[in-house]
Amino acid sequence: MTSSRLDLRASNRALETFGRRSLDALLPEALQTERFAAWKPKADSATRELARGAWEQMTLNEYRSQVGFTDLLHAMTRLGLSRDSLQTMERLTRDEVVHVELCRRMVLGLGGSDVIPGQPQWVGLDASLEPLEQVIEFVTSSLCVGEMISCALLGAAAKAATDPTAKAVLTRMTADESIHGQSGFHFLATLLPAVSKRRLRWFQRRASEAGAQAFAICLTPYEDVQHPFGALPFARLEPILRATWRRSIQPGFARLGLEVREPGPR
Ligand SMILES: [Fe+2]
Ligand SMILES: [Fe+2]
């Protein structure tokens, strides 16, 4: 996992078939293997290449979520969390496997390959914390903050997309990320009662920090590109992030008794 490319090539024909069937069973027909393989994006080659770069980056991000959520599922399982918690976390992890596959299909359709250039920005559990705290910290930063923001950005990209396949992929991912973000707050509702008041204040600070980090990452300026596959102009990001913070993230934490600070202006 240390090279600067993400290799998504299959290694075994039977495993590829099992994997493909299980994922296709979770997808609407328009996004299943055969229909996707027949997709012909309507754009010139320069536009396709620009969009491919964006979808390669999305693939790396989704792969990061797949690995991070697999770790979180493992940690929750080892802690013996409730049946419904593990079922939900298993669903979230599977969703990310589906998202990686949808992004891979988009990259292939846009002329790319199964070997994605670049490297995911890995996220993981904080090994310096106690096992329960590792789970709470990860849920706070990656689900309550990270997935809520990603849901809002994907939703805006889905609206902006005019290519029907890209729109269908982004719409599917948005719906899943919404469940992921909401699940984060429900996980916290079940986990926080076991936490001391002092630790609760630490998690409150950690949530504010996670917001500031997420804003800083999302608001790293980039050059706007025009394509029909879900392009978002940079200027739209900050208003979306602030609206999401005020409407979803801050109230979600407030319902749990945590007061989080909105990230300051850049
Ligand atoms: Fe995802
Ligand atoms: Fe997600």
Would you kindly provide a written description of the structure presented here, covering whatever features stand out?
The protein is mainly α. The chain has one domain (18-255): Ribonucleotide Reductase, subunit A. The protein has helices at residues 13-24, 33-37, 45-79, 83-109, 131-160, 164-191, 197-218, 234-255; strands at 5-7, 115-117. A two-stranded antiparallel ribbon has the order 1-2. It is globular. The protein starts with a strand and ends in an 11-residue tail after the last helix. 37% of the residues are buried. The model has no long low-confidence stretch (mean pLDDT 96). Bound molecules: fe (ii) ion (FE2) (2 copies). One fe (ii) ion binds at residues 62, 65, 96, 99, 173, 177.
Summary, kept brief:
The protein is mainly α. It has helices spanning 13-24, 33-37, 45-79, 83-109, 131-160, 164-191, 197-218, 234-255; strands at residues 5-7, 115-117.
For the record, the CATH architecture stands as Orthogonal Bundle
Order of helices and strands: EHHHHEHHHH
Question: What is the structural class?
Answer: mainly alpha
CATH fold call: Ribonucleotide Reductase, subunit A
Average predicted local confidence, pLDDT: 96
CATH class: Mainly Alpha
The CATH fourth-level homologous superfamily: Ribonucleotide Reductase, subunit A
Bound molecules: fe (ii) ion
Shape summary: globular
Ends distance: 33 Å
Describe the sheet with the most strands.
Answer: 2 strands, antiparallel
Based on DSSP secondary structure assignment, what is the total number of beta strands? 2
Structure annotation, total helices: 8
The oligomerization state is single chain
What portion of the residues fall into strands of 2 or more residues? under 5%
Unreliable spans are: none
Task: Determine Rg (CA atoms, Å).
Answer: 19 Å
Helix percent reads: 55-70%
